Amino acid sequence: MNPHFVLVHGAGHGGWCWFKLLNLLHSAAYHATALDLTGAGVDPTKLEEVTSIHHHAQPLMDFIEALPQQQKVILVGHSFGGLIISLAMEAFPHRILVALFVTAYMPHFLSPPATLVQRFFKSLSPENLLDCQFLFGDDPEMPSSVVFGHNFTTQKLYDDCSNEDLELGNLLMRPFKMFFEDLKKESILTEVKFGSVDRVFVVCEGDEVMNSEFQRSMIQEFPPKAVKCINGGGHMVMLSKPTQLFQHLIEIGESFNSTNECDHQAFNSCPQLN
Ligand SMILES: *[C@@H]1O[C@H](CO)[C@@H](O)[C@H](O)[C@H]1NC(C)=O
Ligand SMILES: *[C@@H]1O[C@H](CO)[C@@H](O)[C@H](O)[C@H]1NC(C)=O
């Protein structure tokens, strides 16, 4: 049975941001689904009603659980979606053929994911955050929720996208929570479950939100099976370079579908990493 691609959006976004990639996958007769997480996209739950990161991730868990047992899944997580697919890897390690982190948080089971998020926030200079709005809860260091500002969206998040995609983003993006308290918990991700699933990282060069040094630091700390690269697409690579991302997805899907482990080494596409 062909694997099912499940596309998981990042913070502020929804299933809608994958519309170009979905069209490419469906046109090539692949099974593919883009989900709205709880409180995101057109999901009717209000942000203040989203109680935990597990509540936020529930649509992904429900989706995987409802698939036939023999149906394998290729998880694709973008940005904050990397943390969400990690929770699904922990919950269903045997159902996942491979997990793709597309300029995404790729946590390690050795430390709580919050460590990674915190390091990311510390690496950002305030000038880069422009007009983003942050709300703080109990922790004065880490925001509890965020609204992307118009200038930030234009100059950082969507700077490599067409004007139409920028307009779409401005119409559809929603405020989001960081779930920092949940991400602080020890053993939210374990070596035996989460750690057993094959991972691939797609590095996005020129990303102004999660810069490529940060992406590379995660790769060095917890090397995935393979690394792919996309140049000049910025952060919203599914909108700016959908065809390149599609080609990487298909190659990865085919390589991991075959049982030949040796294949995996053959397709690293990041010269900087060799
Ligand atoms: C947004 O950008 C405009 C144009 O560059 C600038 O005038 C304005 O002060 C910026 N707003 C914020 C909140 O940074
Ligand atoms: C994956 O493997 C299955 C079973 O061997 C096969 O039917 C299917 O065509 C393969 N799909 C791809 C994308 O290679």
UniProtKB/TrEMBL annotation:
Any one GO MF annotation of this record:
methyl jasmonate esterase activity
Gene3D superfamilies associated with the record: alpha/beta hydrolase
* Cited SUPFAM superfamilies: alpha/beta-Hydrolases
Q: Which GO terms describe its biological process?
A: jasmonic acid metabolic process; salicylic acid metabolic process
- Check the record and name the Pfam families matching this protein: Abhydrolase_6 (PF12697)
Which EC number(s) are documented for this chain?
4.1.2.47
**Record's InterPro entries?**
AB_hydrolase_1, AB_hydrolase_fold, MES/HNL
Q: Which residues form the signal peptide?
A: 1-34
Q: Which UniProt keywords apply?
A: Signal
- AB hydrolase-1 domain segment(s): 5-245
Q: Which reaction is catalysed here?
A: 2,2-dimethylpropanal + hydrogen cyanide = (2S)-2-hydroxy-3,3-dimethylbutanenitrile; formylthiophene + hydrogen cyanide = (2R)-2-hydroxy-2-(thiophen-2-yl)acetonitrile; butan-2-one + hydrogen cyanide = 2-hydroxy-2-methylbutanenitrile; 2-methylpropanal + hydrogen cyanide = (2S)-2-hydroxy-3-methylbutanenitrile
What's the family? Belongs to the AB hydrolase superfamily. Hydroxynitrile lyase family.
| Protein's name according to its UniProt entry | (S)-hydroxynitrile lyase
Q: What is the organism of origin for this protein?
A: Cucurbita maxima (Pumpkin)
- What broad taxonomic lineage does this protein's source fall under? Eukaryota, Viridiplantae, Streptophyta, Embryophyta, Tracheophyta
Q: Which gene encodes it?
A: LOC111478856
